[in-house]
Structure formats: structure tokens, C-alpha cells
Amino acid sequence: MPTIDVTDQVCPLSFVKAKLAMEDLAIGERLEVRLRAGEALANVTRSFEMEGQRVVGREQESPEVWRVVVERQV
């Protein structure tokens, strides 16, 4: 599963970079996104869901960093 690290980005750039990585995948493939807790975590997961993608998992890696797995649906 490909992984993209956007922990050094702020919104909306964190979502833009993750979205570009998602566009390289086929439907049904998954992308792991490493991002910061707080605004980035909330906005990226919400934005993917609003676009019709499926968030299949969230795991806290550290107090500041989360791993989110998104499955391409469209």
C-alpha cells in the first residue's frame, strides 16, 4: 500500500497532496496518509469522504501524528 507523509503541510495543502496521490490509484486500492492531529486530520478525512472515498482506518502513531487509510471508490 502506498504511503504519503503530509505531516509537514498545513491545510489545505495537506489534502491537495493526499488527493493527488489518490488519483494515481485504481478503484479499490488503498492509500495510507500520515498527517498531523487536529485540523489536518479532521479536514483530510472529511474531504475524502465528501468526494466519495472510503476512510477505512485511523490509527494514532504519536500524540501529534495519525495514519489514515483511504480506499479509492471513484
Written overview of the protein:
The chain is an alpha+beta fold. It has a single domain (3-71), classed as TusA-like domain (Translation Initiation Factor IF3). The protein contains two helices and four strands, in the order βαβαββ. It has helices at residues 13-23, 39-50, and strands spanning 3-5, 30-36, 54-60, 65-71. Strand 3 (54-60) and strand 4 (65-71) form a beta hairpin. Helix 1 (13-23) packs across helix 2 (39-50). It starts with a strand and ends with a strand.
CATH-defined architecture: 2-Layer Sandwich
Just give the CATH class: Alpha Beta
The helix count comes to 2
3D shape: globular
Number of domains: 1
Strands, total number:
4
Q: Cα distance, first to last residue?
A: 18 Å
The CATH topology annotation reads as Translation Initiation Factor IF3
Radius of gyration: 11 Å
Order of helices and strands: EHEHEE
Strand % is: 25-35%
